């Protein structure tokens, strides 16, 4: 996913990629430890993602550009 800003928050990234239907759903999935950032479990929904970061969810990997 290409971003037009310096960073994007993890929950917003999941919504923008249509991986969750809502911010609330993103919050739950992140809190349950189902999302990894750069190979590590991430439980902070406000985690800032920068170009080059890799998000893993549901067996798929997405790169922030």
Number of helices: 2
The first-level CATH class is given as: Alpha Beta
Query: Quick one: CATH superfamily?
Result: RNA-binding S4 domain
Main sheet? 4 strands, antiparallel
Structural class: alpha+beta
- CATH architectural label: Roll
Detail the poorly predicted runs: none
**Strand order, sheet with most strands:** 3-2-5-6
Average predicted confidence as pLDDT: 96
Rg: 10 Å
CATH fold title: Structural Genomics Hypothetical 15.5 Kd Protein In mrcA-pckA Intergenic Region, Chain A
The sequence of SSEs as H and E is: EHHEEEEE
Number of strands: 6
Overall, the morphology is globular
Helix content: 10-25%
Q: What's the domain count? A: 1
- Assembly classification: single chain
- The fraction of residues in strands falls at 25-35%
Please describe what this structure looks like.
By secondary structure, the chain is an alpha+beta fold. The chain has a single domain, classed as RNA-binding S4 domain (Structural Genomics Hypothetical 15.5 Kd Protein In mrcA-pckA Intergenic Region, Chain A, Roll), CATH 3.10.290.10. Helices cover 25% and strands 26% of the residues. The chain is built from two helices and six strands. The strands form two sheets. Strands 3-2-5-6 form a four-stranded antiparallel sheet, with no helix packed on it.
């Amino acid at each position: 996913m290409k971003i037009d800003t310096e960073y994007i928050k993890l929950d917003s990234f999941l919504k923008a990629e249509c991986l969750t239907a809502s911010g609330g759903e993103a919050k739950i999935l992140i809190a349950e430890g189902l999302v990894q950032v750069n190979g590590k479990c991430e439980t902070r929904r406000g985690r800032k993602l920068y170009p080059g970061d890799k998000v893993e969810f549901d067996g798929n990997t997405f790169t922030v550009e």
